[in-house]
Amino acid sequence: MPKDSLMNTYSRFDVVFEKGLGSKVYDVNGKEYIDFVSGVAVNCLGHSNPAIIKAINDQSNNLMHVSNLYWNTKQLEVAKKLCNYSDHDKVFFCNSGTEAVEAALKLARKYGKQNGRNQKNEIIYMENSFHGRTLGALAVTGQEKYQKDFMPLMEGVKSAKFNDIEDIKNKINENTCAVIVEPIQGEGGILVAQIDFLKEVKDLCEKYDALLIFDEIQCGMGRTGSLFAYKKFDVIPDVICMAKGLGGGFPIGAVVATQKVASAFVPGDHGSTFGGNPLGCSVALAVLDELVDKGVVREVNEKSEYIINKVLELKNKYNVISKIQGMGLMLGIKLETDKSKVINKCLEKGLLLVGAGEDVVRIVPALNISKEEIDKGLNILDEVLYELSN
After folding, report:
1. How far apart are the first and last CA of the chain?
2. What is the pLDDT of residue 335?
3. 377: closest CA among 303, 326, 325?
4. How far apart are CA 317 and CA 382, in angstroms?
5. What is the DSSP letter of 63?
6. Beta carbons of 129 and 169 less than 8 angstroms apart
7. Residues 155-197 pLDDT 10s
8. pLDDT score for 260
């Protein structure tokens, strides 16, 4: 199959997938793989989920797209649910995580100008963070390797050390309009924010009338064991960016905010042609129904504990595992060996894994993965670690 028509923007594995069912995917040769990647925390209900298929089929026979010049019922329904499930009042829809971050950054700048002065436009972001690849999101991504070839980036941003409140205190001031944080740094290595750190950041934001923005693009939508990750940290952010799991594989993103913050936006300030289209919103409704009403989120903590205990058994067998970190079904195995060797060997044997940071392998499966599928995947990891250790 020719592969020379695509831009060279990804380091792809040498496999071509054709279909998927639940937590299994199949390549063009019919080989089966256990999926511990789930589209990088996107396919929260696995592949070919019946509820998602039904939503797409039903809505595509009714109304797929209508401009945001008009209201549509599905958009209103999803917005209402997101507000009901959170501590927030208003929603903006887009198509992806990086678009959600862009919207949040614009909202913060507008809020700062309205509630301070033109100089109140600085945004603090965390070292080692990842918020997307568009120029605005890239400017607040704390990893130089993603930024260096695209300088100059957006001005008015400052980096601070993750989980270091003293560094935040040294950076925040009256000109700060927002602090953006991932409650769990995904691309950076599955690093969990300390609750006290987030609480103190929230206090500082209130002191300086700056917005606290949580990037829940990867850690949200049930992945931590609650629908919104912030509920696990006992801190209510002013703005939440979401995407990935919200559509269960269908492209949709969103920003939720409190009324006080959202009121900064007026018609013409921001927009998205496809954001909140009826088809995407129908899928999001189906996903939310499965996650909340059908109880998928309630099973996450039990599955997380099951995986952690299994990995700790592997840690006792193989000295290449230093620890397991993360929360819910957003876990990272920290290795003392080349993570790419582990990932590639697992791929050969039928297990999909993805790296994070310098030495971490991510486990971010579908939230409805079965224990049988978990066992099958971890058995493959066991085989690979045995081979690499002997």
Report:
1. 37
2. 96
3. 303
4. 9
5. -
6. no
7. 999 999 999 999 999 999 999 999 999 999 999 999 999 999 9
8. 96
pLDDT in tens, 293-319: 999 999 999 999 999 999 999 999 999
The chain-wide mean pLDDT, for the chain, equals 96
Place of tokens 């799991």: 245
- Going by their DSSP bridges, the two strands 321-327 and 330-335 should be labelled as antiparallel
- Helix (H) or strand (E) holding 23, with range, is none
Neighbours of 13 (CB within 10 A): 12
DSSP run (H or E) holding 215? strand 211-215
pLDDT digits (tens, 9 = 90+) for 35-62: 999 999 999 999 999 999 999 999 999 9
Count other Cβ atoms within 10 Å, centred on residue 61: 8
Are residues 248 and 44 in contact, defined by beta-carbon separation less than 8 angstroms?
yes
Q: ω into residue 152 within 30 of 0, thus cis?
A: yes
217 within 8 A of 229, measured Cβ to Cβ: no
Does pTM surpass 0.90? yes
pLDDT, position 1: 62
Rounded to 10 degrees, what is the CA torsion of 196, 197, 200, 201? -150
Query: What SS3 state is found at 18?
Result: strand
Single out the residue of 240, 237, 327, 293 nearest to residue 45, CA to CA: 293
How far are the Cα atoms of 183, 190, 311, 327, 347 from residue 323, in angstroms, in the given order? 20, 12, 9, 13, 22
Query: In 341-350, which positions are buried (b, 16+ CB within 10 angstroms) versus exposed (e)?
Result: ebbebbbeeb
Q: Is the dihedral of CA 172, 176, 182, 186 positive or negative?
A: negative
From residue 388, alpha-carbon distances to 31, 255, 344 in Å are 23, 44, 12
- Determine how β-strand 354-356 pairs with β-strand 351-352: unpaired
Q: Which tokens in the block code for residue 215?
A: 């990037």
Q: State pLDDT tens for residues 208-223.
A: 999 999 999 999 999 9
Contact call for residues 283 and 243 (beta carbons, < 8 A): no
Question: What secondary structure, in 3-state letters, does 112-174 show?
Answer: HHHHCCCCCCEEEEEECCCCCCCHHHHHCCECHHHHHHHCCCCCCEEEECCCCHHHHHHHCCC
Of the candidates 12, 46, 96, 68, the residue with the CA atom closest to the CA atom of residue 365: 46
* Whether pLDDT at 355 is above 80: yes
